[in-house]
């Protein structure tokens, strides 16, 4: 019976250590973000935070009702902009940014 209690106690300690370790890995999402549209692009810049951000744009095909979603590069805050590009036969209809 004592061996069973020791194994249970060890399991509880390991589980508690896992919880503490994962709690320390939390990140603050990028913040202080701004965006802009150009003729063929949607661009995002985030100035603060951890993790990464990405520009996402829905491109409207001129002369049709088709939309295509295009993605910029994942970027770290306070480095460079993420730029999602439409083709020359499309124009940006709407855009947003996302985090990971």
UniProtKB/TrEMBL annotation:
<feature type="signal peptide">
    <location>
        <begin position="1"/>
        <end position="28"/>
    </location>
</feature>
<protein>
    <recommendedName>
        <fullName>Secreted protein</fullName>
    </recommendedName>
</protein>
<keyword id="KW-0732">Signal</keyword>
């Amino acid at each position: 019976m004592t061996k069973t209690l020791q194994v249970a106690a060890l399991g509880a300690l390991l589980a508690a250590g896992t919880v503490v370790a994962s709690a320390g890995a939390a990140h603050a999402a990028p913040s202080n973000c701004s965006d802009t549209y150009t003729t063929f692009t949607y661009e995002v810049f985030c100035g603060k935070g951890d993790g990464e951000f990405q520009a996402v744009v829905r491109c409207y095909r001129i002369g049709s009702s088709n939309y295509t979603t295009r993605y910029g590069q994942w970027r770290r805050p306070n480095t460079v902009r993420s730029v999602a590009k439409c083709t020359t036969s499309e124009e940006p209809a709407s855009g947003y940014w996302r985090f990971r």
